[in-house]
Amino acid sequence: DDVQQQERFDALVADDQRIEPRDWMPEGYRKTLIRQIAQHAHSEIIGMQPEGNWISQAPSLRRKAILMAKVQDEAGHGLYLYSAAETLGIDRSELLDMLHTGRQKYSSIFNYPTLSWADMGSIGWLVDGAAIVNQVPICRCSYGPYARAMVRICKEESFHQRQGFEILHHLSHGTPEQHAMAQESVNRWWWPSLMMFGPPDDASPNSAQSMAWGIKRHSNDELRQRFVDMTVPQAQVLGLTLPDPELELDEETGHYRFGEIDWTEFMEVIKGNGPCNAERIERRVGAHDDGAWVREAAMAYADKQATRSQG
Ligand code: ACO
Fold first, then answer.
1. Computed from CA positions of residues 15, 21, 25, 26, in that sequence, does the dihedral angle turn out positive or negative?
2. Which residue lies with its CA nearest to atom 24 of ligand 1?
């Protein structure tokens, strides 16, 4: 009965075992996972847009090939994640519909514009760097399909982060104009990258329950701190500065102190009022509509194959 099922579920979570699609799970657990995995999947496919903008403007054939491979990886991550969400009993078309109608979110970061080539560097270094810090612990998420999808995704994210670092390193050690372009870009992406980790712990309604369920392993603020601690020394290697006068090593704790994040800006962006929210959704809905014939053709083909194999 339900009590026994709940006890078995609690024991699996307490024992750090994985919950699999056919296992009983509390309705709230299922809902939370659908919400988080869908938001994650949406972020991957919306995240293709800011970079896609620069494929045709990449400064060399080599840079273009790398950027194309990276953007394709993001499409792949989206597909893994939609598949993981579908194991919870929801259809991909329903999830896309919720994205297109604003009922499900995607990461705030992808609502900022990409104004220069250096932004490809900042996205790789800072945005993918933040994504790795957030996602590595999800490889140990209590829900098996999400945890397993995250293993490969994290490996690919590491490559993305390195390619971004390399772009910035190259620019930073180039001409004065290139150095200035890299610095200007990092100045714009730094604060939005810190916002990716979500609201502060005391304003994060989902954290406590998600941590109790083993979906989240660390709080938003813990991961944000980890990211800052990791990134400051990398900025020094790049020869770039981070736009925060309060950034300072606290000798006692060994952690970097940093300035106040503009949470009003964060709330505006997740409410749909960021610089590019409308443009991102419009482009996504357009791409979905343009792809209708492909879905129809694939369905017709699958039906034909099924009829043949029956006959
Ligand atoms: N952008 C948009 N929405 C956000 C963000 C953000 N950066 N941070 C938090 N939110 C939303 C939450 O989704 C939640 O809204 P909802 O209840 O309507 O879904 C609300 O703000 C409150 O936040 P929390 O209670 O802290 O939410 P949660 O426990 O889900 O934590 C977090 C947010 C850390 C983003 C978590 O969902 C997570 O780890 N997700 C997986 C990683 C991910 O989505 N990465 C995408 C960007 S990285 C990339 O794709 C390259």
1. positive
2. 204
Question: What does the angle CA 215 – CA 219 – CA 220 come to, to the nearest 5 degrees?
Answer: 110
CA nearest to 41, candidates 162, 182, 184, 138: 138
- When pLDDT is averaged across residues 71-90 and rounded to a whole number, the result is 97
Chain segment 207-238, per-residue pLDDT in tens = 999 999 999 999 999 999 999 999 999 999 99
Q: Give the distance (Å) from ligand 1 centre to CA of residue 198.
A: 6
Structure tokens at 174: 């180039």
Mutational pocket test of ligand 1: of 29, 36, 209, the residue with most ligand atoms within 8 Å of the beta carbon? 36
Instruction: Tell me, using a 6 A CB cutoff, whether residue 214 lines ligand 1.
Output: no
Residue nearest to atom 8 of ligand 1 (CA): 198
The interface predicted TM-score (ipTM) is 0.97
Q: How many CB atoms lie within 10 A of CB 78?
A: 19
| Interior/surface letters 8-36, b for 16+ CB within 10 angstroms, e for the rest | ebeebbeeeebbeeeeebeeebeebbbbb
Report helix, strand and coil shares of the chain as percent, to nearest 5: 70, 5, 25
Q: How confident is the model over 86-145, as pLDDT tens digits?
A: 999 999 999 999 999 999 999 999 999 999 999 999 999 999 999 999 999 999 999 999
Q: How far apart are CA 214 and CA 217, in angstroms?
A: 6
CB 92 within 8 A of CB 298: no
Both structure tokens of 148: 């397993």
Length in residues, the chain: 311
